[in-house]
Amino acid sequence: MHPKDFRSAYLETVYTAGEISWVFSPVDVGLELYKGRRFALITAANPRSEAWSEAENAERNQRMRLEIAARGWTCIESVGSSPNGDWRENGCLIWDAPLDQVVKIGREYGQNAICHGEAGRVALVWCDDGETEWCYAKPVNPQ
User: Fold this and answer.
1) Span 57-67, mean pLDDT?
2) Which of 52, 64, 97, 129 could cross-link to 56 by cystine, CB 3.0-4.6 Å?
C-alpha cells in the first residue's frame, strides 16, 4: 500500500501527550496545543504500518529517543490510539526541533507520517515527500 492510503487512519487517530488528547479537525475549535509551542509527534513503531512485536517497537522507540537526546532535543512520552482504544502506538513529542530533521528521522524509521504543530495549528506531514496537510486540533477524551 502507498503511505497516503493510511491518511484517514492518521486523521482519526487520538494523539495524547502530556495532559492533552486531540484529533485532527478541519475546523478551528479554539484549541491551541501547548500554548502554540512548536512540536512534533513521532514514533519508531510499526514501520510502514506493518505490525511489529511490542518488544521490537519498544526497542526501536528507545533507539529513536537516544537519537533525539543526542541532538539536544527534549521529548515527552506520547501515544497514538484508535478512537475505540483497540490499537495503541507509543512514541514521543519533541519540542522545538526543526521539522525537516524530524521528518528525516521519521523516514529513517520507516514511518509514513508524523504530526507537527505550531502557532495553534497542527499538520500531518508525509515522510516520503514532506507534503504538509494543515488542520486544527480538537480535544477528545483519551481511551
Assistant:
1) 97
2) 52
Q: pLDDT tens, 75-90? A: 999 999 999 989 999 9
Distance CA 120, CA 28 (A): 9
Residue with cell 521519521: 106
Kindly report whether the global pTM for this prediction surpasses the value 0.85.
yes
CA dihedral angle for residue 46, residue 50, residue 53, residue 58, rounded to 10 degrees: -10
Hunting for cell 511489529 — which residue is that?
Answer: 52
Write the DSSP symbol of residue 13.
P
122: CB partners within 8 A, 6+ apart: 22, 24, 33, 115, 116, 134, 135, 136, 137
Task: Tell me the sheet residues that pair with 122.
Answer: 117, 135
113-118 vs 121-126, strand pairing mode: antiparallel
Residues 60 and 44: their CA atoms lie apart, in Å, by: 6
